[in-house]
Fold these 3 entries.
Entry 1:
Amino acid sequence: MIKVCALASGSNGNSYYIGNEQEAILVDAGINCKQLLLRMEERNLDPQKVKAVFITHEHTDHICGVRVFCNKLSIPAYFTRGTFLNTSNRHKPRLYRFIDPGTTIALGSFEVTAFAKKHDASEPCSFRVTVDGKNIGVLTDLGSSSESVIENMKQCEVLFLESNYDEEMLWKGSYPWLLKKRIASEHGHLSNIQALNLIKEFSGQQLHTIILSHLSGENNTPELAYNTFSPLHNSYKIVNTSRHAPSEIIAIP
């Protein structure tokens, strides 16, 4: 049985758990170590099973807990070289490894494929995790789709999919104009509508669960994101995540 859970998801912190009965990994550790451990305990997830943390990019909401968490558990974090070079020393753990976009590494029963994405960071990547014959994708912080994103998304049964903002809320909201343009750019984030259209156009036949992730606290609501996906409610399990608590656990037989 595979279990996946968004321990945190939003602009105030992101971390995604993927594990089976024997071992697990995290993608990102963007909340502090104490909160990571508390949220894992809340969902009865054993941190001793975690073998590594895979970092998507160097923004604080994805790395702020990685040093303490990895040092505490004596496990490595995987970075692209560009991400590592642009990560501040206070966030770098003792144990670290490099992973190149377009490559796959084996780690116990896991195969982790890194692939390039468009985002305003240094060598950002997303991950497709293959475990026990199933594929789980973590597709957040996407300004727009790309060939590598589409190719990997098509292989997934489960997706953590960015649904960052409602377009009307963003453009009518209080953010400065330049920040609005950055968020909506091809190196920013996916809106609810863009995320929906990505699934409509490019999802694979085996996809059955979509976990709406990285929702903005200022320019979106869980209800808006969920309702945007209403055309797909009969075809997929649609799950919301929270900025303040772990999501439900999704079990994949």
Entry 2:
Amino acid sequence: MTSASDDTTRALSRIRADVQSMHAYAVQDARGLLKLDAMENPFGLPPALQAALGQRLGALALNRYPGPRSGDLQRALAAYAGLPEGFGLMLGNGSDELISLLAMACDLPGAAILAPEPGFVMYAMSARLQGLRFVGVPLTADFELDEAAMLAAIAREKPAIVYLAYPNNPTANLWDDAVIEKIVQAQGAQGGLVVIDEAYQPFAARSYIDRMERHGHVLLMRTLSKFGLAGVRLGYLVGPQALIAEVDKVRPPYNISVLNCECALFALEHAEVFAEQAARIRAGRTRIFEALAGLPGVRSWPSEANMILVRVPDAARTFEGMKSRGVLIKNVSRMHPLLANCLRLTVGTAEENAQMLAALEASL
């Protein structure tokens, strides 16, 4: 009779070697710390809205599978986003699921997914988990798109999907629209998809959705996480109806719970509350930039998101110093060579921002 450990060892041989060699997505332990590492909206619902939402959620039929209410949410999101005529919309359990479903839908032999780097780690992770090639194209030293390198990579690799985050994570900047259009056109000419990821749209000066009708191969992805519902896990993908209908075929049935759906509908009914929160975050972002300008040895880059990328003399020491002072941020310095000694700061409330800046100054 074999031991349980022997059985486990043999069972592990059935798990793909590339999966075993991967690192799982790491979530930092924020207990007891001011959590400014994950670009979350720092504001909760006002008490009156909390009570109203609680009543609605309490009345849901949790014993039933999700029903037509998801259609109501799709229509509400289409109206909120200003969806062009003839475009479709599908729901995901956060953007992460949508990214995985896109990889699954485009998993043809030899297919590749291409994105600028540094960028959102799930583009590469979902591609590799699906067995697709991932091609990362480095940004410039100032985190702008390298037009020549991107166009050359598209011509060489002929990717199934090109991801363009607008604005980008973790660099927080909006790229040049003229360069984006050249990339979109080149990808369309070779028959591939472009996915514009607007996760941080509530904080950005502009959106790509007004240009969607120019192209039949562009999809736009958004999430309600940065809107203020990170715990709800709700993302959506919009694009030409014919494309959305095909991607939607790989979506699991009932992927959006009745709780997620009702929370999102409730939030959209009170969109003005979240718009006011976003305005406060943008104002806080401006004040942080003003304070950063007075810190010696600190460089920051323009942001159109609810985060700010900074470079400090010693990222590891500064990160640990801030953590010891009760503030958790994100050390991105090892994510990519271009991010050497870089930290990512989430914009919080006015009080949180003041505490973060004090911890940063004391930890340099």
Entry 3:
Amino acid sequence: MAEGKTRHMFAGGNTAEGFFSYYDHILPQEKAERIIILKGGPGVGKSTFMKKIASQMLKEGFDVEYMHCSSDPDSLDGVVFPKKNTALIDGTAPHIVDPKNPGAVDEIINLGEFWDNDGFSENKEKIMSINRKKGIAYQRAYRYIHAAYAIYKDNEALYGMAVHNGKANVVISQVVSEIFDRIGVSEVTGKQRRLFASAITPKGFVNHIPTLITTDRVIIIKGEPGTGTERLLERTILASTERGINTETYYCALNPRKPEHIVIPELDVSITTMNPPHFVEGIRGEEINFNDFVDESILEQYQDDIEFNREESGRLLNKAMQVLKQAKKYHDDLESYYIPNMNFDSVQKCQEAVLNSLLRL
């Protein structure tokens, strides 16, 4: 039996708007057969629980989508088994998930049932103190990210002033018309799945673009902020929706409302933004450079400011990542209080029972 294929992405991110969740798009309720929501504190084994089940499902030939954690990219926030229309999701803070259709779709497994409550009493004050410090660290990191984005937006405004929108519109219209050639508007509205391909993490900027941009046709768009690269994506999303074609849209790690990559499985087409820091070797395709629509003479007097903005924005993002690393350390400290009080034999039995039920589904 051939092993299943894997894809990797993020369902939530550390953004200029704070922690931003696209958890509702991990597996939409109307499509899901089963969503298992894992509860429990740090160190109870939620990520390991999901990894072990995913590993076995891969061996059984099922494809797996891994939802990585932006606060610790080596950990998981969820796994999806598309052929089973089933997902396991970490439902704890900051991405609290509760059942929307209990019993019909959702169920809760509380791994906290397998810990020794008495073991926490003597460390109550320490746990509460670490939690406070962890919360403060995240708020500081979000302020740095927000500040970096404010400076980034100045470059966006400067380039926006110099771009020739008419020329860009012509190219955008040509690309969209060609992608949807002879496909008429549908009475059925296409669905849009929203997630992140990349994230700002304690380990730096992490992306999983190569596992997502795997279509036969790839259109690569380049361009400085403000040149309108996202307009091509937005027009493509709208055209897909109007034609009843489903899309996967991956949003900017900094601005979670700005699309950066779109995959249209039905048409075997992807459009991907390739600018630093998400430049990926190995992805080839047709290129459209929105910098070609910029009047450089308008920008000449702002070159020093543009360079200053790039450096300051990058410096603030690096500082945010350092603070996220400190928040991760606090999280690890919390785990050290939970792990000794866990009955992992019981957790394993629960994990085996879930795996068997998935294979029977």
